[in-house]
Design a protein that fits this description.
By secondary structure, the protein is α/β, with parallel strands linked by helices. It has helices spanning 16-27, 39-51, 66-80, 103-131, 154-173, 191-196, 204-214, 223-234, 259-270, 299-304; strands at 7-11, 31-36, 55-60, 85-88, 136-141, 178-185, 244-248.
Length: 312
């Protein structure tokens, strides 16, 4: 993949999918700027990448603050002289109907998911435009929640839909200088996914086996699946892909509505992941399948049989 010597900024780049992408980009020869509010994890990852022969620099960043994003952009240029691509991966999950949510919820979720992407585009896109060559790339980790009305996820879904709209606007507003693309992960096997299964009636391994049987590719996704696709989208080989998003859900969204009846008892599980950024879901039919196995640890499960959380 053609990432050698490219300077790539990755927000949310120190854990989950972001960490896998950061490591993979570095393995392909990119110079990776790790942007995150996880200082300890960021410094550790920077050291591990450098020890393995890669090039990475950690910069503490709060994506909700424009000044922090401005500083990130300036430091990246000071370190490497340019920014060739950005992977906007930082994100936050939130649950609730519009009648449940507060102004604080709005600021928290929209602040990370939407405003963070907006500020990053505002300060990184001009750098890529000024460099010329028309090779800049702005990649956003979005979510299938942008296209599906998950119950009690009004604000979260709205934030993801806003990202999809932003991608299209960036593609047209900065045509000829920056490509804007999105990536939408599905059910991904990570330690956080395993942690979210604690408290269920079945062992994690058994739950995983049931989930795998329901996914058309018959396996869970791996962080490397996302990292490899992201690397392609950032490369020159993907130069004609612009203003759109790539869904990576193992074929789950292609399943017919009636399949939900057979999947009901495991839907709550595979839609649940805590705090990473790959969204588990993407089914048009799951909303009909509320009688699922319940998780004793989470209030959302006790209320409606479903636990849907965001992951990065």
């Amino acid at each position: 993949m053609g990432l050698k010597a490219k300077v790539i900024v990755v927000t949310g780049g120190t854990s989950g999918i972001g960490e896998a992408c950061s490591r993979h980009f570095a393995e392909l020869g990119a110079q990776v700027v790790l942007a995150s509010n996880q200082a300890e994890e960021g410094e550790r990852l920077e050291g591990e990448i450098r020890d393995s022969g890669g090039d990475a620099s950690f910069i503490y960043t709060d994506v909700t603050q424009e000044e922090s994003i401005r500083t990130l952009s300036e430091k990246a240029v000071a370190l490497y002289g340019r920014i060739d691509a950005v992977h906007c991966n930082a994100g936050l999950w939130g649950q609730g109907k519009v009648t449940d949510l507060t102004d604080e919820d709005w600021e928290r979720i929209m602040g990370v998911n939407v405003k963070g992407a907006f500020w990053l585009a505002k300060h990184a896109v001009p750098v890529m435009e000024k460099q010329g060559g028309g090779k800049g790339v702005f990649l956003v980790t979005t979510s299938v929640a942008a296209h599906i009305g998950f119950p009690a996820h009004a604000l979260y879904c709205a934030s993801k839909a806003a990202l999809e709209a932003l991608i299209r606007c960036l593609a047209t507003d900065h045509a000829g200088s920056v490509r804007a693309v999105g990536i939408c992960p599905g059910t991904i096997d990570t330690p956080m996914l395993a942690a979210s299964c604690q408290g269920w009636d079945k062992p994690v391994e058994e739950l995983y086996a049931e989930v795998e049987k329901k996914i058309p590719v018959r396996r869970l996704g791996q962080p490397m699946d996302i990292a490899q696709a992201a690397a392609f989208l950032l490369s020159d080989e993907a130069g004609y892909i612009n203003g759109t998003s790539l869904v990576l859900d193992g074929g789950t969204m292609a399943l017919p509505r009636w399949w939900g009846a057979a999947c009901g008892r495991v839907i709550g599980y595979w839609l649940s992941v805590i705090r990473s950024r790959f969204d588990l879901g993407g089914t048009h039919w799951y909303r009909r399948t509320f009688p699922v196995q319940r998780c004793s640890r989470h209030a959302p499960c006790r209320r409606n049989g479903l636990l849907i959380t965001d992951n990065r």
